[in-house]
Design goal:
The longest helix has 26 residues, at about 5-30. It is built from 14 helices and eight strands. The strands form two sheets. A six-stranded mixed β-sheet has the order 3-2-4-6-7-8, with helices on both faces. Strands 1-5 form a two-stranded parallel ribbon. By secondary structure, the protein is α/β, with parallel strands linked by helices. Strand 2 (about 65), helix 3 (about 75-85) and strand 3 form a beta-alpha-beta unit. It has one domain (about 55-135, about 190-365): SGNH hydrolase (Rossmann fold), CATH 3.40.50. The protein is about 45% helix and about 10% strand. It is elongated and about 85 Å long.
């Protein structure tokens, strides 16, 4: 064989191989970039930032559970059964408000009109630049989320996508797997992998000290502007554009150790001022329903339910959903509630005062005794 013929043969073989790889990935479409799942295959869901965009675009649903790791252990079936709506869970561990909001916008842009959207408002992410993304968690898959078809080559000719996702889905019928996808109860569920308890939360801390200096609440005007812009762009604006959707936003029940550290640093009142400002901003939209669980010290002071200062066990996730479902079904006036967990225009001042008194006077050293 002459050199010219050899070159042509190698070129044809290379093109054919690349075409085969691209064809398999396109046919299986394990990230649901082009279409809903193939009804004859089983797809394993386990890559949040690669698969969530496709789930949001191409799955059939009436409600979305989204947010950070605070949502990972929610059961979509619990939300479905309580509020009678087909639910998907698209969680972004460690995500900023922008990443979550960008994905929610995709839902409407792709022709969906969800009845409910449930998301947490992590305290640690309140005062962040409105456009901040977590680039420190690896390359963000812009090639999946943008509208540039040329970028699709990074998907279609990706060895990792082919070997870890497309081929396992393609051979799933031969393995006797029932067609479908990982359930949204199991997707991103981490409770079985976590270890909980006082030692993991306190990390050797022996005592909470009195603060040496207390920062005046809300004194940092630049931080307040950053907060306002973050909430406006990544929470309020979408709710304002879609009054037909109920946006259920909740402040997660971080442990009392979190609040104790803020108290010790002289930052407690400042953080509560940021929370109050965010609440007042969200209350301008009637379709944003706000929940907070700080007053439940039976949970927040029980360190056996936490794996660190913020992350709670799946039982707490279940409690949060149960509570929200009862309120959304109109039971807030019953005797089932000793304090209000939903914050409204009518009770916001009372709730925030109760919360401030609780956190400002709590005996944090009782957590380490």
């Amino acid at each position: 064989m002459t050199g010219k013929k050899w070159f042509k043969a190698i070129l044809i073989l290379t093109i054919a191989t690349l075409a085969l790889i691209a064809g398999v990935v396109y046919f299986v479409d394990p990230f649901f970039h082009y279409r809903a799942p193939n009804g004859k295959l089983f797809y394993k869901l386990y890559d949040q930032r690669s698969q969530n965009d496709g789930i949001t675009r191409n799955f059939d649903y009436e409600a979305i559970i989204t947010g950070t790791s605070m949502c990972e252990n929610f059961k979509a079936s619990q939300f479905e059964e309580g509020l009678y709506c087909k639910t998907v869970k698209v969680v972004y561990s460690g995500a900023t408000y922008k990443e979550i909001n960008d994905n929610l916008k995709v839902s409407y842009e792709s022709g969906h009109n969800p009845e409910y959207i449930l998301r947490p408002l992590d305290y640690t992410l309140l005062v962040r630049d409105k456009d901040e993304l977590r680039d420190d968690m690896g390359e963000y898959p812009y090639w999946l989320t943008n509208d540039n078809p040329i970028d699709d080559v990074k998907y279609l000719l990706n060895k990792d996508v082919l070997l870890r996702y497309a081929i396992p889905a393609l051979v799933s019928p031969l393995q006797g797997k029932t067609p479908g996808v990982t359930s949204f109860d199991d997707y991103s569920y981490t409770d079985n992998d976590n270890q909980y308890g006082k030692d993991y939360v306190l990390l050797g801390k022996k005592r909470f000290k009195e603060p040496e200096a207390i920062e005046y609440p809300g004194s940092d005007t630049e931080a307040m502007k950053t907060l306002h812009d973050n909430i406006e762009q990544n929470v309020v604006s979408l709710a304002r554009m879609h009054p037909e959707t109920k946006f259920i936003c909740f402040f997660p029940p971080y442990s009392m150790v979190y609040w104790g550290n803020l108290y010790e640093e002289g930052q407690l009142d400042n953080i509560l001022a940021y929370k109050e400002a965010a609440i007042n901003q969200m209350l301008e939209c009637d379709n944003i329903h706000i929940y907070s669980f700080t007053t439940h010290t039976d949970i927040t002071a029980d360190l056996s339910r936490y794996r660190d200062q913020a992350h709670y066990d799946a039982g707490v996730n279940s409690f949060i959903l149960d509570t929200i479902i009862m309120y959304e079904n109109g039971y807030e006036e019953t005797d089932m509630f000793t304090t209000s967990d939903r914050i409204t225009k009518e009770n916001a001042i009372d709730y925030l005062m109760t919360e401030k008194l609780l956190l400002g006077n709590y005996d944090y050293n009782s957590l380490v005794d």
